Amino acid sequence: MNSFEEIAQRIFLLRGEEDFAGTALALFRLQAEHNPVYHRYLSLLGVDPLRVERLEEIPFLPVRFFKSYRVSVTEGPYAAVFTSSTTTGGEPSRHYVPHLSLYEESFLRAFRHFYGDPTEYCILALLPSYLEREGSSLVYMMDRLIRRSGHEESGFYLHDHARLYATLQRLAATGQRTLLFGVSFALLDFAEHYRLPAMDLIVMETGGMKGRRREPVREELHGFLKERFRVAAIHSEYGMTELLSQAYSQGAGVFRTPPWMRVLVRDSYDPFAWMPPGRTGGINIIDLANVWSCAFLETQDLGRLLPDGAFTVEGRFDHSEMRGCNLMVQEVQ
To answer: Are residues 240 and 264 in the same domain?
Structure first.
């Protein structure tokens, strides 16, 4: 594999860990050469890409670089530029995407991997904070999944909770399998005013109160939502602007990745050392769908790796804890 196009065609056909590792290392060497930001970062670390022989030896690029630089192997044109939400005055992350077809294939295959075909569901999206700005990769994904579902009731519900409740009641009466996907604060707002009848329903939250209200612990949030929606578990989606793939939890906050994505957990005080399963540290992600940007990302999330490769999310770093990474970011800037 000596081109980005060859890797893009291969990532959804991987067979086992050896195949994943070989493809990841091939992509690493290409991105190390052709992504100017990643190339400079590796140079400052004194890393020779040709000497990297294992996944654990790959330096991961801090996601904060997406706020200050164009992290891309091409100079364009771009089919889309996805942007993150920000606090007032903050700088958003920008993910430059030259080929939307790869993103669409990634999120559709991941959804099918965990949930089956979208046509089996009526898909309802409660994403006010995302719909109220431009450039959300999550809104793009949900829009395409809603279209794929083909159900006449599928769609976005901004702040119209009464209409959403009426829709859910109709779906409950017909026995329609339904997926309600929402940002946490919006699901909580809805659940505080409505309690649903028993129905064939998956409730999936995508995290975050976005500054709207106190951030509850996961067990508290999920416990309340389970009681109000009358479901056995609350599902979760783990994704971000800087990624083109998603991990999913089908309960208890345990996330699993699709076959072209992996999670490693780094030491909180040494970004180049790894934590064993069960120990909390920083979440690093390999997303092979990030063919055209950087597939090896160091996030600001804290988590634990489980023995079977699943992972949990335990919170986020505050800036005082980002010691090694902070120094490196400052040096590159």
So the answer is: no
pLDDT profile of the chain (333 residues), mean per 10:
90 96 98 98 97 96 97 97 79 96 98 98 91 88 97 93 96 97 94 94 84 71 96 97 98 97 96 95 98 98 96 80 40 44
Is 320 part of a structural domain of the chain? yes
Classify residue 180 by burial, with Cβ atoms within 10 Å: 0-12, 13-18, 19+.
buried
Q: Dig out the tokens for 317 from the structure.
A: 């770093």
- What is the domain count for the chain? 2
Nearest to 164 by CA among 141, 130, 187, 136: 187
Position 83 in a domain: no
- Helix or strand (DSSP H, E) at 280: strand 280-287
Q: What is the pTM of this model?
A: 0.92
Same domain, 275 and 230: no
In 194-315, which residue ranges form alpha helices assigned H by DSSP?
A: 218-229
The tens digit of pLDDT for each residue in 257-280 reads 999 999 999 999 998 999 999 999
Range of the domain at 205: 102-249
Angle at 284 between CA 303 and CA 221, to 5 degrees: 35
Average of per-residue pLDDT values in the chain? 92
Beta pairing, strands 201-205 & 155-156:
unpaired
In terms of domains, do 167 and 214 share one?
yes
